[in-house]
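Lab notes, practical 5.
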Amino acid sequence: MLASRLSLALALALLGGCVQPAPRRTAAHAPPAAVVVEKKDYDRELPPGAHALRRITDPAQLPDLAAAFRGDRAALRRAVDRSLAYLKKPSSRRFYPVSGIDHEQVVRGLTAFAALLDSDRGPDELAAEVRRRFAVYTTVGCDDRGTVLFTGYYTPIFEASRRRTAEFRHPLHRLPPDHVKDPITGATLGRRRADGSVDPSYPDRAALLASGALDGLELVWLRDAFEAYVAGVQGSAFLRLDDGTRLEVGYAGNNGHEYASIGAALVRDGKLRKDQLNLRSMIAHFRAHPADFDRYAAENGRYVFFQPSSGGPYGCLNERVEAMASIATDKAIFPRGALCLVDADLPGEGGRGTERVRAFVLDQDAGGAIRAPGRCDVYMGVGEEAGARAGRTLSEGRLYYLVLDEPGTVPAAFGR
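Output from the prediction step:
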């Protein structure tokens, strides 16, 4: 079933609303008998000119660094290398400084952290080194007290075909040859005219699909219209083709229009009550009323184009994301590729139960629903098991950023 393969983060993007997580009741963190859960606006934006990060000066407020070193060091080391590969690109400097952190600080911190991971020191000794050499920042969160809502995302596996058939009728399209985007940011600039100039007025989703301009650009065909729509929201997918092979597709661009919530439109028109709004009910509605899908999908002006990919899935840094070692945040306010520490209750393997996770991660991705200091999306991996885990991720916690607090120069390989 599709419902079992969709992440909660994707649900939030599709629904376009805020949620209030239930208190986690674990043996180590059992709340008092009577708990009043304060309603919070996790999507609250920063005030103009404010920073998303605040340096911790009280040692008692530092997270448990030793616990974070007890995770999968090999996966973490791979993720560090991918952040360093991104930061080596001259274009990465364009996004710094951000929230008081500059490019050189992040590069030096990751280089020093990689050396620590390569050593044979134990968690306690490594934690002492980090406390001595690194500055630790906390996000201001949704409430200026560091509260962050953690959700999960993953890469789905959908059934597809390279040919249109009676069963597979819903296409994912390649990037049109006249598409023009910024070479650094990837932002859509418009379409190339015959005279070489750029037309900035790109058709919205409905007009583009009705125009016939995408005919012949079909990359693959999916069985379900909503699955094709979901792939566009995710921006990537692993496909199980009807000939027995697999294909990975990734984001190639979009038509430059803003995303609009399909779930909010269903509530607006009384198709679903707000308390019924979840992915399962949306899937059930569109299966029972297939004629509704095109009408509501047309209200979302954004349309995503795809390309064959390999070695992914990739995050917004165009580097591969690592399960349980990569996160997505708002890249307008947080430093790209930086070293972070997550402290939150997350689902265990297979999505069963929850456990307190204190783990180092790298900030390597972004998301349409992740647009504030109070939101963080944890990458769970590829396929059914990752989807089960992602679908049960909804927890308040804390997110920290670590940068080297020592004078020095950026490694020579990065230039100036």
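Observations recorded by the TA: Residues 368 and 398 are 21 Å apart (CA to CA). The chain has eleven helices and 17 strands.
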